[in-house]
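TODO from last week: model Short-chain dehydrogenases/reductase, putative.
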Amino acid sequence: MPSYLITGTSRGLGLAFTTELLKNPENLVIATARNTGKSTGLQNLKAQYPGNDRLILVDMDVASLDSIRAAVKAVEPLLPNGLDNLVSNAGVSYAGMQSFEQLDVEKFTSEVDFTITAPLNLLREFLPLIRKGQAKRALFVTSVIGSIELAAHMPGLLNAYAVARAALNMLVRKWSSTLKGEGITAALIHPGWVGETDIGDELSDWVAKYNPSLENVPSAKSAADCMKVLNNITPEDSGVFFNHDGSKLPW
């Protein structure tokens, strides 16, 4: 039974990922969030799969190393054959659409710190379980906004978020080359512009002004696309920056 552990599943894309993966009766899905009991979406899924041990809810705050370590201890007995797939999805946008002149430096540094430190600690702590798994895959949700090559074409768009995602991209790009030697595939994925999410909604006015033809991808479609990419990547795809449709994006 393939196993998946996803962060940030209380709503938005994380919840959509969980919903998509549960469609396959062969999958074991561990959905994590700061407080799974307060997530209406997760509780509805639990009710939809009553008595089903394929959906496991685990409280984990990815901003806390102690919380991550506690989650590892909680899931270890449930994964005797290791963890096949880790999906790092939890993200923040503290500074929003502030210009660089207006940028709150404290919010900016907090956003960058979370975006690189949380995935770093997450992967480092779950690596022993991933090494025991069969698929040995880690997928990091990022954004095309973090593409250095394309940045000049996105004036004023979530400046802090863009810098933070560029840093995340480099973290995974660098680390993936080492992990590849162990047969572990670490890759990045842009889920598309999903306007119905909190962060996606922040882009609405910018898109209307600068890129009105940009596709607004429903969360269900984005989730299906992203999970298809995850399930098909191999060590040869280590360090690749994917679009949700499977194409590759420039750094």
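Done. The chain has one domain: 3-243.
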